[in-house]
């Protein structure tokens, strides 16, 4: 009998915007059928850990220490984001920060203070695991020295519930590059996985050419994507562009999260690259914290205004980690 | 009379050859560009399609970058060094060259407008 499980929908990562970043659901779809359970068992052997359902959140570009006209509220959006995540019904396993945790400073002491303030706010997250990569504002001036002292390595990998997570640093060389040493490390890291392994890369800049003349690219991104090309389930989460964006190329889907400080305009709108001006009436609108009118409890009462709307929209159904098993793999 | 005509023709031929040789050795137009936090000076340069131009570029403070993919410019600018970059634009238009070596808070807005007529 033909296996009832559609292998291309074995596992899905569906992203839901929660107004502060993106909440991702990783859902293996196999458990209900004997064939599915056999596939899960096989993957457990191959990957070292059988995939199980979980969710995680991506946050980006908090720019702790930034103060200026595009956002005079400083860390307020970041702190709101922490509250929202802590209030989620489904507690995420993991929060990923995709760079520019802090705003740069010429003064190393001041920059260290900003990193500590970031840690203080992030420590309120009630999640088991918090991981991050640097952005150029964290690591561009000192080659990542302070970031490493504060947060640890700027590139690394780990496994979580059957998904392989890879942190890539494309900022510490000061130029938008990953560099040959890290690419060699990446190839070695990937070599132990079957091409069907679900992989989530998180980094700061896009690995593809989104707008090179806005520095929205990675110079050697092609080499990284070539190293990932034979893997069939790759999601790249990134920040830097301060707005949502999705780009699919081959088996790899790039997803950008919004910033928690200010937004940049649509790169295809034909406008200059300048922060979208701050609107004191809607201070979080471009950061994704939407204003929602809720009906009052009494007739004639003024609708209550919330700054946050959850579950704004689904990115897609089966996207991201589309496939865990190669077509034609014998079980 | 006949010899005089031949003499004039030969003379013009020689002068023409000398003029062509001199033209081939002519230095391309040179444009000086200085990078500093967080701007390029001048902020706009104008080139002509098909004209070879030498960009003489330097940084006067920290390390900057100069990146313009349509003209295949991709270099770091180290303080104390002057670089000569020869370009011959083939496409008319307005392009943004950027600093792609992170140089501080205003780095993201540091650009050089290149107009190719």
Notes on the protein architecture:
The complex is a heterodimer of chains A (331) and B (117). Chain A is an alpha/beta fold. Chain A is 21% helix and 20% strand. Chain A has a single domain (7-295), classed as Purple Acid Phosphatase, chain A, domain 2, CATH 3.60.21.10. In chain A, the strands form 3 sheets. A 6-stranded mixed β-sheet of chain A has the order 6-7-8-9-11-10, with no helix packed on it. A 5-stranded mixed β-sheet of chain A has the order 1-2-3-4-5, with no helix packed on it. Chain A has a two-stranded antiparallel sheet with strand order 12-13. The longest helix of chain A has 15 residues, at 108-122. Mean pLDDT of chain A is 78; it is low at 1-10 and 288-331. Chain B is an alpha/beta fold. Chain B has one domain (28-116): Immunoglobulin-like (Sandwich). In chain B, the strands form 3 sheets. In chain B, strands 2-1-4-7 form a 4-stranded mixed β-sheet, with no helix packed on it. The A-B interface holds A 103-104, 106, 136-137, 140-141, 171, 174-176, 212-215, 219, 273-274 and B 63, 65, 67-69, 74, 76, 95-98, 100-102, 104-105, 107-109, 111.
Task: Reconstruct the topology from this structure.
The complex is a heterodimer of chains A (331) and B (117).
Chain A: E1 11-17, E2 22-28, H1 34-47, E3 54-59, H2 76-86, E4 94-98, H3 108-122, E5 129-133, H4 136-139, H5 145-151, E6 156-160, E7 163-167, H6 180-191, E8 198-202, H7 221-228, E9 233-238, E10 245-249, E11 252-256, E12 292-294, E13 304-306
Parallel strand pairs in A: 3-4, 4-5, 7-8, 8-9, 9-11
Antiparallel strand pairs in A: 1-2, 2-3, 6-7, 10-11, 12-13
Helix pairs in contact in A: 6-7
Chain B: H1 2-24, E1 29-36, E2 39-41, E3 44-47, E4 53-59, E5 64-68, E6 73-77, E7 82-87, E8 93-98, E9 111-116
Parallel strand pairs in B: 1-4, 3-9
Antiparallel strand pairs in B: 1-2, 4-7, 5-6, 8-9
């Amino acid at each position: 009998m033909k296996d009832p499980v559609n292998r291309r929908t074995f596992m899905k990562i569906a992203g839901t915007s929660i107004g502060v970043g993106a909440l991702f659901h990783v859902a293996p779809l196999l458990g209900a059928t004997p064939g599915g359970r056999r596939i899960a068992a096989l993957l457990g052997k191959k990957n070292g850990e059988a995939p199980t359902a979980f969710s995680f959140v991506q946050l980006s570009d908090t720019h702790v220490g930034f103060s200026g006209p595009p956002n005079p509220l400083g860390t307020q959006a970041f702190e709101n984001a922490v509250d929202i995540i802590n209030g989620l019904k489904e507690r995420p396993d993991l929060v990923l920060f995709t760079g520019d945790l802090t705003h740069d400073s010429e003064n190393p002491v001041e920059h260290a203070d900003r990193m500590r303030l970031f840690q203080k706010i992030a420590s309120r997250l009630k999640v088991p695991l918090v991981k991050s990569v640097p952005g150029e504002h964290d690591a561009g001036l000192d080659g990542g020295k302070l970031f490493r002292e504060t947060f640890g390595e700027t590139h690394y990998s780990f496994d979580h519930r059957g998904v392989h997570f890879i942190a890539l640093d494309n900022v510490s060389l000061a130029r938008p590059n990953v560099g040959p040493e890290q690419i060699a490390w990446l190839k070695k890291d990937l070599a132990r996985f079957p091409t069907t392994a679900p992989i989530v890369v998180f980094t700061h800049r896009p690995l593809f050419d989104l707008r090179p003349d806005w520095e929205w690219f990675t110079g050697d991104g092609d080499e990284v994507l070539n190293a990932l090309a034979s893997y069939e389930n790759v999601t790249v989460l990134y920040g830097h562009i301060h707005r949502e964006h999705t780009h699919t190329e081959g088996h790899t889907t790039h997803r950008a999260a919004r910033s928690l400080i200010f937004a940049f305009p649509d790169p295809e709108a034909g406008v200059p690259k300048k922060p979208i001006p701050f609107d004191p009436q809607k201070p979080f609108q471009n950061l994704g914290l939407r204003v929602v009118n809720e009906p009052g409890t009494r007739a004639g009462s003024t609708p209550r205004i919330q700054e946050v709307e959850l579950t704004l929209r689904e990115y897609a159904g089966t996207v991201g980690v589309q496939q865990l098993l190669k077509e034609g793999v014998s079980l | 009379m006949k010899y005089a005509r031949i003499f004039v023709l030969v003379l013009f031929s020689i002068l023409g050859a000398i003029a062509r040789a001199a033209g081939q050795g002519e230095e391309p137009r040179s444009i000086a560009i200085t990078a500093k936090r967080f701007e390029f000076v001048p902020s706009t340069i104008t080139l002509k399609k098909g004209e070879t131009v030498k960009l003489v570029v330097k940084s006067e403070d920290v390390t900057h970058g100069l990146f313009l993919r349509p003209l295949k410019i991709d270099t770091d600018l180290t303080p104390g060094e002057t670089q000569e970059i020869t370009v011959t634009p083939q496409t008319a238009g307005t392009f943004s060259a950027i600093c792609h070596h992170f140089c501080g808070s205003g780095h993201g807005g540091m650009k050089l407008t290149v107009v190719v007529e």
